[in-house]
Amino acid sequence: MKPTTVIVVDDSALIRQLLTEILNNDPQIKVVATAADPYQARERIKQFNPDVLTLDVEMPRMDGLTFLRNLMRLRPMPVVMVSTLTQHGAQITLDALALGAVDVIAKPKIDVANSLSHYAEEIISKVKAAANARVRAYSGGDQLLSPKLSADAIIDPDKPLAPLRTTEKIVAMGASTGGTEAIREVLAAMPADSPGMVITQHIPAAFSAAFAERVNRQSAMEVCQARDGQQILPGHAFIAPGDQHLLVERDGARYVCRLNDGPAVNRHKPSVDVLFRSVAQQVGPNAIGVMLTGMGDDGAQGMLEMKQAGAVNMVQDEASSVVWGMPGAAFKLGASDQQLALSDIAAAIRRAAMKH
Asked: For the chain, which has fewer Cβ within 10 Å, the N-terminal or C-terminal residue?
């Protein structure tokens, strides 16, 4: 198989060298060129026609956002943003994802050698996923893998379902690659009286609060980053923090958010499988499950458990997904009978909530 070709764009020579070494360490990836700024990048793209670009968010001469906006308008291609873990970096990164970047990776900490193996695993998998992503024009290595734990690491799979004392509906949603824009689109179409929603999106911890604030500005629902013990109320959506699992727990006739700092599940923290299993056990037939675009299979097993507990589930279809990994895995497992275009999901949730 022809390796995935990559151009690394970063103003730091040290970062360019580090990313090149990490990516070239995987036999299925080849860094064909590097560039110190967008002007060099433009020439390298013309010369090498890469499959994927890694792009520093903040650069001299032309910032990464301006370059990305021009690139996605004139020559759309898969881009993975490399961002500093700051509030400013988070806002710029979310703008980049809105412009069409496929994913984001934190800028590596050069001085922390023991964190590099996990970092290498993450960026290699994101570059590979980006190579197969559906990119739309803007119109306006195994030896590094950590053990893959299941949701058993957080929640006992054999815990019996508690008897229900409420008929209140809960919507549980999971997403990864391409999910920030998909979640924003779904929530923007939900009315203020929608059922309470709990959402797990794979996103760096420094970005999750800014992401929740951005979605809140565009939704009639009240959207926030989940805090431990918050009651899940209609008209409210709770997004998992980027470094903790989000679970639903029943407290009498109320549902509350629970945050868990346990190990990564399916190599993700937060994990969709953990959220969905908690919803299967605590909400059962009162739940509506939604799986949006994302790389990998996190959440597929949990969504099947939700279906077995009586939930109504739906997955985003392949044509409208950036990466049909997570929704595809759930559908192939039989966890959902419905495949829907992203633009149809909000209406389907509303219908399910009324008759379910």
From this structure: N
